[in-house]
Q: What sequence folds into this?
């Protein structure tokens, strides 16, 4: 309605009943938000589906331990596996293209070849999960993830690392 | 704006002061005083935000469920409970986000990867997505009571995911730390100062949670009041037009 209209003019002049759409007020814009909520909800349902698929295909039993290869369902040699073991003392050798080491778990040892430099806090005596395929008794890894334990100990530069700690087997 | 239309009270102002003090103390202890870890080095300091973030997200989602149950309780139907539930879920999503981001950075430094689909990370992602969905459901429109009923039912279902997330590291083999690796015991062994800093982090995050929820539920109340007054305003406009047209 134009400002010149008086209440008495209603219905008497052509522009007194202005039916053209009004500019939405801030309040009406707020009420339109359900569309945004519905879009978010659709995205949530899609993301939930992806996460659920990942849960069923990847997350249940993320890895096989070294001693479970060929012994546990889903850990058959020849298929792509994720193997968990503890890096053996003195087994790590680097050459120009690959890192070679062996890892053990449950009294079984497995030689590993990894193309590249492992990231994270990779070192001897630490549990790692290696992704790859077992070929001719050697595990060819293309991804290494380092597990860290729930033990936390202060780093002490004065700690004496003697032969007892650096024996042929990991102290854990 | 009159004094009853603001979200702070002397209590929240005092609480806010202690939260700021606590954050400052946590930064000093977490970054400068507590020791580096023998295996993880300096990256262990991320724990002081990561763990309290996750615990407070759990607490926030449980609070959402409790408030929702209080709303649904026979003859209560108080929208205050609904707004506390909504505010708590928003803060919970924020804390879960903090935990996911810090966890991802920590993972890059220690595991060597930002993300992997192991059971703990996957269930946490599902929990996070669920509560974003919960907030979206709250925004679907309708009356305040409709919003409250829908979201209360969802909150009571969503909270059941928390045990699954928490015990995922026990139920399945996960990259995320758990107790059984290499025959270690189930007790968490932690340096005393590290444990104290972690404890302080949980206290500070808890106070921060209370401060945020108090303010947020009051601002949600003001939003509801604005909606209600908007309806009154629209009604009075229509009445005025009808009166004019009737002349």
A:
């Amino acid at each position: 309605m134009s400002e010149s209209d008086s209440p008495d003019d209603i219905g008497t002049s052509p522009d007194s009943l202005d039916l053209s759409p009004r500019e939405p007020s801030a309040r009406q814009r707020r009420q339109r938000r359900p569309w945004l909520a519905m879009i978010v909800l659709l995205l949530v349902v899609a993301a939930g589906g992806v996460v659920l698929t990942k849960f069923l295909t990847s997350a249940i039993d993320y890895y096989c331990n070294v001693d479970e290869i060929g012994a546990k369902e889903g850990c058959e040699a020849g298929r792509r596996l994720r193997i968990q073991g503890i890096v053996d003392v003195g087994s790590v050798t680097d050459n120009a293209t690959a890192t070679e080491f062996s890892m053990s778990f449950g009294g079984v040892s497995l030689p590993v070849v990894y193309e590249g430099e492992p990231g994270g806090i990779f070192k001897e005596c630490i549990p790692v999960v290696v992704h790859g395929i077992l070929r001719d008794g050697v595990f060819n890894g293309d991804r290494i993830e380092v597990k860290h334990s729930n033990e936390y100990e202060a780093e002490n530069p004065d700690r004496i690392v003697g032969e007892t700690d650096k024996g042929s087997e990991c102290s854990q | 704006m009159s004094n009853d239309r603001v979200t702070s009270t002397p209590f929240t102002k005092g609480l806010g002061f202690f939260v700021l003090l606590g954050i400052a103390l946590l930064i000093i202890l977490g970054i400068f005083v507590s020791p580096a870890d023998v295996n993880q080095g300096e990256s262990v300091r991320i724990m002081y935000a990561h763990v309290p973030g996750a615990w407070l997200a759990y607490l926030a989602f449980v609070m959402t469920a409790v408030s929702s149950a209080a709303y649904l309780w026979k003859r209560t139907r108080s929208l205050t409970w609904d707004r506390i539930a909504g505010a708590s879920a928003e803060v919970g999503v924020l804390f879960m986000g903090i935990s996911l981001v810090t966890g991802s950075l920590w993972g890059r430094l220690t595991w060597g990867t930002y993300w992997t689909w192991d059971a703990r990370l996957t269930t946490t992602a599902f929990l996070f997505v669920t509560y974003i969905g919960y907030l979206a459901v709250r925004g679907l429109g309708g009356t305040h009571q409709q919003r409250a009923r829908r979201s209360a039912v969802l909150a009571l279902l969503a909270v059941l995911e928390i045990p699954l997330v928490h015990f995922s590291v026990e139920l399945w083999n996960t990259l995320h730390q758990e107790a059984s690796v290499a025959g270690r015991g189930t007790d968490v062994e932690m340096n005393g100062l590290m444990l104290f800093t972690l404890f302080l982090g949980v206290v500070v995050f808890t106070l921060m949670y209370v401060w945020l929820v108090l303010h947020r539920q009051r601002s949600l109340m003001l939003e509801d009041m604005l909606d209600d007054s908007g309806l009154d305003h629209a009604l009075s406009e229509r009445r005025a037009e009808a009166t004019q047209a009737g002349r």
